[in-house]
Amino acid sequence: MKPDTGRRGTLFGVAAGMMIVSAPAAGQGVATPAPLLTPADADLDPDSPLAPLPDIGVAWPDLSALPATPPAAQAQASATAVMRYGWRIDGLDGIGSPLLRQRFDELSVLAGNDGKDANAAQLDRRARQDADLLLTLLKAEGYYDAAVTTGVEQAAGKRPTVVLTAAPGALYRFAGVTVAGVEQAGDKAAPLREAFAVKTGDAVDADAVAAADAQLRTRAGEIGFPFATIGAPEIVVDRAARTATLQMEVAPGTARRFGTITANANNRVFDAAHVQEIARFRPGDPYAASQVDDLRRALIQTGLVSTAEVKPVPGATPDTVDIAVRLAPAPPRTVAGELGYGTGEGARAELSWTHRNLFPPEGALTLRGVLGTREQLGQVTVRRNNFRGRDRVLTGQFAVAHLVRDAFEANTLTLSTTLERQTNIFFQKKWIWSLGAELVASDERDVIASTGEPRRRTFLIGALPASLGYDGSDDLLNPTRGFRLAGRASPELSLQGAVFGYTRIQLDASAYQPLTDTAVVAGRIRLGTILGAPRDQVAPSRRFYAGGGASVRGYGFQSIGPRDPNNDPIGGRSLAEFGLEARIKAFGNFGIVPFLDGGNIYTDGVPDFGGFRYGAGLGVRYYSSFGPIRVDVGTPLNPQTGDSRIAVYVSLGQAF
Question: Class of the 405-652 domain?
Fold first, then answer.
């Protein structure tokens, strides 16, 4: 920033690179300092009262009111006396933007030490510092003739009040604003002119100029000028007229389109072809700087790159721009663990090992194991991210599982593959979908519903599950507004014995509405049906169940609905559920969540919405940097025989 050449002309607080020149008003000069001593000063009585000292910002105390002590001791006592103080600013009513007062409060030493003891010397120093700060902020908003004085109000028996009195003076405005060179952009000149929002007649506001400068540079990159040269704003202040002029020089260069992507050959992560698959732009598309920034974030988000340098370089022709990518690999292996507990689900521990680039590019192998009181699992997953396009994931999976539930016990082998468009916390998607194929062999034990007699059956099931979801919420793990809709359909064939088919369908919807800055109301509904087969022919592990931390809280996992003679749940062909809760930030990173849930399972294929089981309770949330950690404690309001009075759920993320 170039310093002001006049007495008062600097445009304070403008971004680095801005040039300001000030023209002093006629007749302004520099005052000659008065001599420190005059001959008459030699006859001064040292015991006489102090004369007013206009250069001292905080008024001297009345020494005559002090006890009769020697003058030197009085002065020392006054300077070191400790007191608490208040402070205020006069003269700012209707002046300046809300940012002026906000910035003053953030930077003020008086405000920063409010409520703390201080002596007279400290008050004087703080008052002077804050007066300089306020003067700087006023000038940054165009009040070049501003003045700020300090003083102290002292009422008997009350703490002193430091008063900053502002006299803003006239508001300087731009008499002319010129952005030269934009006409070289041809038919794109108008968007460039519009991007620089400062106009003739506007206040000489440092924030407005800096914002307009940044917006112009951003717009140039967005409409195809990657190599535009934009000079710093030059501002000339006329103190006599109380105006200023602003000029910028712009050389946009040639509008360009995307050319090819190149990648450093030794990066050991991706080649240029895979980087092009990740990019949202294609060769020939108009250049946009935001697309380059998006590609940089996407490369980092893969987890395989520690650093990614993505920059435009001149292309093979004057109207193209190539993208040069330099990557450095990140450690490719990850070990993760998880602990959890839910009433009815029991305790569980999960451990996984992943090599995220064992099969380049982005071909990952994951080995996962679960050990729990009611679940044991071994799983091998092969996964390729950004498969033939951005955000598409191809997954192949083989799993061996043993599940113990109140409704059934199952030993299951699963072989499946899925192609899906996923969402994540870095790039939350509006639309997500999945298409899959699944082959399941399961040995399951349950009971005959009418008699309670144990039985064991083997099932061989083929399925083609598909899903579609829309996410209109504002956050993946902790939504505060918006809504979500999701549907899943799985046509299935039972291949053991007599072959028959059926279809499982489930619909989910949730909505989020803020009430205040610290309170959000959230609600959800879930509907499901199995069409084409009676309940008893459908494997127990493929039926619908309700109850638990992701369903109706207050009840055990899968405990709601029809029961066998042993009082164990048997599942059903349809379900209906709802949930309602208030998410209230209580203090710091902690919040409380009162909730009410309800739902039921039905034998028929269509829910009749009768016989709902209701659960209510209170949850605690800790809002960590990676998402809310929740602990919910619920109780059934109309329990069935055998239901526990208390259910506890612990997990990461909100309940829905």
Answer: mainly beta
Give mean pLDDT, residues 627-631: 91
Cβ–Cβ < 8 Å for 328, 307? yes
Looking at the structure, give the CATH architecture of the domain made up of residues 257-329: Roll (3.10)
Contacts of 418 (CB under 8 A, 6+ apart): 393, 394, 395, 397, 434, 435, 436
Query: CA dihedral defined by 377, 382, 386, 388, rounded to 10 degrees?
Result: -140
For the stretch 366-384, pLDDT in tens is 999 999 999 999 999 999 9
Q: Is 298 exposed, middle or buried (0-12, 13-18, 19+ CB in 10 A)?
A: buried
Residues in contact with 430: Cβ distance below 8 Å, sequence separation at least 6, in sequence order:
470, 471, 472
Residue 302 burial class via C-beta count within 10 angstroms: exposed 0-12, middle 13-18, buried 19 and up: buried
Q: What residues contact residue 594 under an 8 Å CB cut-off, 6+ apart?
A: 581, 582, 584, 616, 617, 618, 619
Measured in whole angstroms, the distance separating CA 52 from the mean position of its chain's CA atoms is 56
d(CA 653, CA 626): 9
Asked if 238 and 246 touch (Cβ cutoff 8 Å), the reply is no
Tell me which residue of 427, 477, 474, 475 sits closest to 652, measured CA to CA: 477
Global pTM value:
0.71
Q: Tell me, what's the pLDDT at 344?
A: 67
The mean pLDDT value for 514-542 works out to: 96
Note the pLDDT tens digit of each residue in 322-368.
Answer: 999 999 999 999 999 988 777 667 889 999 999 999 998 999 999 99
Q: Is 253 exposed, middle or buried (0-12, 13-18, 19+ CB in 10 A)?
A: middle
Q: Which residues of 426-465 are buried (b: 16+ CB within 10 A; e: fewer)?
A: eeeeeebebebebebebebebbebeeeeeeeeebbbebeb
Handedness of CA 82, 83, 84, 88 (dihedral sign): negative
- Compute CA distances 176 → 18, 23, 25, 192, 276, whole Å: 17, 15, 19, 18, 46
Q: Are strands 257-263 and 320-329 parallel, antiparallel or unpaired?
A: parallel
CATH 3.10.20.310 range(s) for the chain read 257-329
DSSP 286: B
Chain length of the chain: 656
DSSP E strand stretches across 91-233 = 147-153, 161-167, 173-180, 229-230
Q: Where in the chain are all domains bearing CATH 2.40.160.50?
A: 405-652
Distant-in-sequence, close-in-space partners of 567: CB < 8 Å, separation ≥ 6? 641, 642
Instruction: Residue 162: name the closest of 56, 50, 49, 53 by CA.
Output: 56
Residue 370, H or E segment: strand 363-372
Element (H, E) at 137: helix 120-140
Coil vs helix vs strand at 308: strand
Q: Tell me how far apart the alpha carbons of residues 330 and 268 are, in angstroms, rounded to a whole number.
A: 10
Cα distances (Å, whole numbers) of residue 299 to 257, 310, 328, 353: 22, 10, 11, 22
Q: Phi/psi of residue 457, each to 5°?
A: -135, 155
Q: How far from 54 is each of 7, 60, 137, 151, 425, CA to CA, in Å?
A: 21, 11, 24, 10, 60
Contact 548, 611 (CB under 8 A): no
Structure tokens at 457: 């059956």
Q: How far is CA 509 from the centre of its chain?
A: 23
